[in-house]
Structure formats: C-alpha cells, structure tokens
User: Fold these one by one.
Assistant:
Number 1:
Amino acid sequence: MTKTGRRVTANLALTLDGRYNGPGGAADLGAIVPYAITAVARNHMARIWETATTAVLGRLNAEGFLGYWSAIAKDEAADPRDRGYANWLVGTDKVVFSRTVTEAPWERTRIANGPVVDVVSKLKASGEGDILVNSSASLIKSLLSADMIDRLYLLICPEIAGGGERLFEDGLPGTSWLVAHQETGSRGEIALVYDRVR
C-alpha cells in the first residue's frame, strides 16, 4: 500500500469525566451544548477542517450534521466561522458509514459499510490532506484501538455528566501525545489539539 503522509484526525467534545453524552443516551448533550457555541468552540471548529480534505462520519451524524449545516452554509447572518465549517462540510469529499443506507443522499459522498480501519487505511493510501473523523465516537474508538489517529481535537466542557458513554475505554493501546494547541474560554471550556507522538 502506498504511503501518502495523510493524517487521520478526529474531533469530539467531552465532559470532565470523559463522556460525549450524558446518562440519558445519545441525545443527552446537556453538558456539552452550552459550550459548543462559545468563541473558543467556534475557533476550535474553524481549526479542525483547515487541513482536511475528507470527512468521515457515521450515518446518524451525517444525517444530523448535513441537515443542519447545509442551511448554515447559505445563511449570510451566521457566524463566519460557522459558515466556513458548513461550506467545507457540504463541499468536501465525505465517507459515511452505514449498514442500512446504500445510496448517498448528499453530494460528494460515498457510503462505506466495511470495517472503519480498512476503509481509512485505503483513504490514507491515496489523495492528500487530512482525513477528519467528524464527531463520530464509535469510528474514533475503532481508530484509537488500532492506533491510527494522528491528531485529536478535543473540546473539554467543565461539567461532570455522571453517566453516558466514554471515549477512552479500558483496553486501548498505551500511546503518547503532545499538546499542539490549547485555548481556554471564559466559561471554563478548553479547546485542545493533541498530536500522536510516534
């Protein structure tokens, strides 16, 4: 397999206790949403896509994100950082993982239903620019398990959810990371960029 130098990056918002949702399940984002609209979070969102040319998403995230961000891309009153991300997401190449959808309803999108490690390995072998795994926790977990993530963009929200799903579970390989960027907001949210030390 050819090596291109493409990085695999991933972004996710987490609570202080390492959860990406609360005890109420996938839709329980009460500990995260208030911090996702701050200036620090918006700056962080602008950072995640600046070197990415491919977005990798799970089906549920693709449906939610593309439904929401497509409208933001056309909204001239929206924050310029939001519009920048929205235009990137709508216009970039996308790979959406699904076992139920076979035809992509979005432009520049292909559906994948194989193992994420295999699909991302093939993406790394051709093209250029970063491959951004965009807030899809199950895909990020699989890639962390295979030690395939080169950069992590994390927004740490200053709340303890007390329940919900965690990103970093027992059994991950031990790895070392270097802080490439950090920024703290007035509400206590912290935007962190970690690069994998190899």
Note: The chain is about 30% helix and 25% strand.
Number 2:
Amino acid sequence: MVVSAGCGDPTEGKPTASGTTAVTTAPSKSADADAGLWDPCSLPDSALSASGLDPSTKEKDVAGVDFEGWKVCDWRSTAQWYNLSIFSGTPTLQDVRKRPDYEAFAPLTVGTRQAVQYLSVNDKKRLNCYVAVELLRGTAIFKAQTNYSIGKQGDPCAEARRHTDELAKYLPGS
C-alpha cells in the first residue's frame, strides 16, 4: 500500500499520476482519525531486540511524515540488509485482499488471528513482503523491506512472517 511517493507502504487509496497515494480512511467518530489505533512504536525495546531489530533505529511515521488514519514505526534489522515497518490502520483483511496493486496472497494464522501474506505487483525483484494481521479494529501490517544499498541477503517474506509471529503477543487483544 502506498503512503508516499516511492515508499510502497500500506494505506487505503489509489496511486495518483505523481506516484503518491490519495489516502482515504473510514469515517471516525473522533476528530482524530488515529484515535484508538494501536501504536507499533509502543513495542518494548526488549521484544524488538529479541526479534533481531535494533531499537535505536526506531523511526516514527514514514520519512517523518504522519499519515492520517495510520500509525507507523520502522526499525533496521540487526542483519542490516532489511528494515521492518509496522503499520496500524483501519482497513480490514478483506480490504487488503481487494487491492489490485497486491498479489500472491497466502492465508496465514498468527496465534489465533487471521492473517495474509502478500507482495506488491510492482515489486518484480521481490525485495519486500507484507503480512497483514487482523486486529479488533483494522489491521497491523508488517513489511520487511530490503535495504537497497546492501541488497537482498535472504527472504523478505520469511523475515516478515518471523517478526509477525515473534511480536504478535504485543498486538492489542492478545
């Protein structure tokens, strides 16, 4: 799902001619569209370290930009060839599956939750992989993204699944 030009990150909306995405969110009863969303930046440093992520590299939002209706956090892996981003938003798993810009959907179970692994249609080199996990309100989307300056040194889908499994106990309702 595209959050900003060239980022290839999850949101609802459709790409515009400039390559950015028009973000649409479900109506909120609150003036704050982010109200009630789980904040992935709240994950404990100890859990991140145990999962192979470097807590000191935490970056909130996308390139420092807050996108309404989403909470986003990103960390570099200790392996350094990829980053893990986690997005929390209101789209459902069904919304994710309906997106024409994604493919290779594979159903998963994460703990007791429904989930789906998928790829971006435009990522022909398969440098990124997503796992969306059902929450009480929306989804948490885990994205393993290859660090382009280092190059792919493993399977981004295996990393996305591993981190999802290891961090699932911190999702709301767990």
Note: The first helix runs from residue 45 to 50.
